[in-house]
Amino acid sequence: xxxYAIGDLQGCFAPLERLLEAIAFDRARDRLWxxxxxxNRGPDSARCLRFVKDLGESALTVLGNHDLHLLCxxxxxxxxxxxxxxxxxxxxxxxxxxxxxxxxxxxxxxxxGFVLVHAGVLPAWSVRQARGLAAELESSLHGSGYxxxxxxxxxxxxxxxxxxxxxxxxxxxxxNAMTRMRMCDATGAMALGYKGEPGEEAPAGLTPWFDVPxxxxxxxxxxxxxxxxxxxxxxxxxxxxxxxxxxxxxxSAIRLEDRAVFEVPCEGVRGG
Length: 272
Hints:
- The protein has helices at 13-22, 45-54, 65-74, 87-90, 95-103, 127-142, 146-153, 167-179, and strands at residues 3-6, 31-34, 59-61, 108-111, 114-117, 183-184, 190-191, 207-208, 221-224, 233-234, 238-240, 250-255, 260-265.
- By secondary structure, the chain is α/β, with parallel strands linked by helices.
- The chain has a single domain (3-265), classed as Metallo-dependent phosphatases (Purple Acid Phosphatase, chain A, domain 2).
- The relative contact order is 0.18.
């Protein structure tokens, strides 16, 4: 039995098929962990959703920003953007079933010393605190008032955590950290507008969230995606798995038991 964490699919089903062949995936024995963003920008969002859902107990996924955007579009909260490619989900005969299943997915999963999350965990949060905050948002998203939650989640403020935050501000920080964050400034506040590479090209004063000094969640290995410009980045306490499949680069997986890495090319895939 093996568990494989897999990077952002974003509607790219053919590379997923090649990756599962490369790892000799056996649904009766193995498990797949997806870092979120199953949908959008690629050609087969509905097929990706159906496949992961139909794997049942053999797969789990956390929610990404594109997954949440799909839910907002389905509820009429957002309009379809020019670059959105999940019309196939909205037109699918199983639409209601797929969207209901997607809405019930967690924001964060913790197991065996690993944390699975789409974008990251704020440096100020311990793993235990982050799991509790994720549960607050999940409770609202899974309940009957989820439409009001979705209508109030979008926005960049507040950019930093305070223990006294309440209401939509509190939940917005949680969802932005776990589904949109890449860089933080010197105070630990999220710099949500930057999508490029870390290092010399990044604006002065910004640091990848996982390199912020004093980060309180270094006691677990955090598996995340969302940052295609970062690419595959395997470290002891963080593993970045978005290797840019949607940009025609590769789709990546890591086997948690021995940290073996697997990649398949995504030639011919062009999203954006």
